[in-house]
Structures are given as C-alpha cells and as structure tokens.
C-alpha cells in the first residue's frame, strides 16, 4: 500500500522567527568558514563576510522588532478580552439587580 511521505518542516519549535535566525546564523557561519578557506588560498573575501554579517544583524533586528510587536498585540488582545468580560459581568449584575428590584416591588 502507498505510504504517505511525511512533509519536511523547516521550523524550529514551530516558531518562524527562531527558524529565520538559526538558519541565517548557519548561513553566516558557512560564509565565514568559506572565507577562511579562501583566505588560506590568498583570496580576499572580507567584503563578502562583512556583507553576510550585516545581513544577519539586520535580520536579527527585524525578528526582534517582530517579536516585540507580536507581544504588544497579544497583550492588547488579552486586555480587550478582559475588558469585554468585565463589561459582560457588570451587565449581568445590573440585570440581576433590576430583576431583584422588580421582584421585591
């Protein structure tokens, strides 16, 4: 019988930003190691290594900003949800008070 192949996932801990940072770091390590090999042969690759490290730093900064934004929005969502629940509880208490007042009259 035909067995389904399991899909390869390239996410680490099911987190896209962590995956981006880790794979970018691995790419930079590869570039630096390649630079060492070429430097041993007498080829100047300092500009390539410099650019790859700048790209990694930029990606790291972007991922940090995205994480801060994500936390801010989740905090806002939790606050809005708590406000909705509090509003609903106040509404229920008011209705109960009205019902109690109508019942005693």
Order of helices and strands: HH
Q: Can you count the beta strands?
A: 0
How many structural domains can be distinguished in the coordinates?
1
- Portion of residues within helices: over 70%
Overall spatial form: elongated
Q: Which structural class is indicated by helix and strand composition?
A: mainly alpha
Gyration radius, rounded: 28 Å
Q: How far apart are the termini?
A: 76 Å
Largest beta-sheet details? none
Number of discrete helical segments = 2
Uncertain spans: none
Mean pLDDT over the full residue set: 81
**Roughly what fraction of the amino acids lie in strands?**
under 5%
Describe the model.
With 105 residues, the chain is mostly helical. The chain has one domain. Helix content is 80%, strand content 0%. It has two helices and no strands. The chain has helices at residues 16-40, 46-104. The mean pLDDT is 81. Residues 79-105 are annotated as: Disordered.
Features:
transmembrane helix; 105 residues; transmembrane; membrane
Quick structural summary:
With 105 residues, this protein is mainly alpha-helical. The protein has helices at residues 16-40, 46-104. The protein has one domain.
